[in-house]
Design goal:
single chain; 163 residues; mainly alpha; 5 helices
Length: 163
Amino acid sequence: AQADVINALFAAGGSALAAAMMPAYLHAAANGEQTAFGNLLRYAVRAMLGLAALCVLAGWALSALALQLGQPQVLVSLVGDPATGLTLMAAALVWAVAGFVQKPVEMGGRAQHLVYAVLAALLFFWVVAPWSASLYGATGVAGVKLLAGLCFIAWVAVAERSR
């Protein structure tokens, strides 16, 4: 349930920000401005870190409020299972940032690298997640999701540097 809420928040935030930034991306691509891509990426990372901070604060506040009211824990429970919640938050942050990191490769007409990066991340997740779940439960699966996102970003970064 935590993953459903956290993933949706970051997907919505990342998608809205990417759509808003698309004109700037297109302008930078049309003019060959690599510095502009870097500035846009730094802006997106700061925005996603801000979203993560807000989610952590809201999660703790809602969890505390639910306990005081005698209600069951809310879905974004950073009190009942902080290790899983914070790991999911980090994974969602990495995957949201990945959407921005891929833009130069995507707009450079090298989409095949994105396909390979997605396949590598999925393969990593499918192979490692069951093992991690058996050892560490939900937190292990969240950790593998985080590592799969880092795998995707690494692949895309190598593809961007190799052009």
